[in-house]
């Protein structure tokens, strides 16, 4: 399994939807991460840099430097779980990703 590609909050994860909203994560092969908060009439995009250290994603936002570490894992069915603030949130691959 690889992080590279686009991931959406799992619609069955009510806690993730309530805490994060309709979020799209796009990991690219060169260490870029686009975090998009999708609302009805607008998109808020946060551009980050990332690297993987074992089972941890290390992110940094170049415009406001601050390193964040997030544990991650993949389930057998391909669901990505991110422990945001220690709380697991599920993401599924976006169609076509």
What does this structure look like?
This protein is mostly beta strands and 97 residues long. The protein has one domain (5-93): Lipocalin (Beta Barrel). Helices cover 7% and strands 54% of the residues. It contains one helix and eight strands. It has an eight-stranded antiparallel β-barrel. It starts with a strand and ends with a strand. The model has no long low-confidence stretch (mean pLDDT 93).
What are the key terms here?
97 residues; Lipocalin; 1 helix; 54% strand; 8 strands; mainly beta; eight-stranded antiparallel β-barrel
**How large is the share of residues in beta strands?**
over 45%
What structural class is derived from the secondary structure elements? mainly beta
Helix-strand sequence: EHEEEEEEE
Computed CA radius of gyration, to the nearest angstrom: 13 Å
Quaternary state, please? single chain
Main β sheet profile: 8 strands, antiparallel, barrel
Using the alpha-carbon principal axes, give the shape. Answer: globular
Number of discrete helical segments? 1
């Amino acid at each position: 399994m690889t992080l590279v590609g686009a991931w959406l909050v799992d619609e069955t994860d009510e806690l993730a939807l309530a805490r994060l909203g309709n979020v799209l994560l796009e990991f690219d092969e060169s260490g870029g991460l686009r975090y998009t908060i999708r609302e009805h009439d607008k998109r808020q995009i946060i551009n980050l840099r990332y690297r993987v250290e074992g089972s941890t994603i290390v992110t940094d936002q170049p415009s406001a430097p601050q390193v964040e570490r997030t544990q991650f894992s993949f389930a057998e069915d391909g669901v990505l779980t991110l422990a945001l603030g220690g709380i697991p949130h599920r993401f599924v691959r976006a169609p076509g990703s």
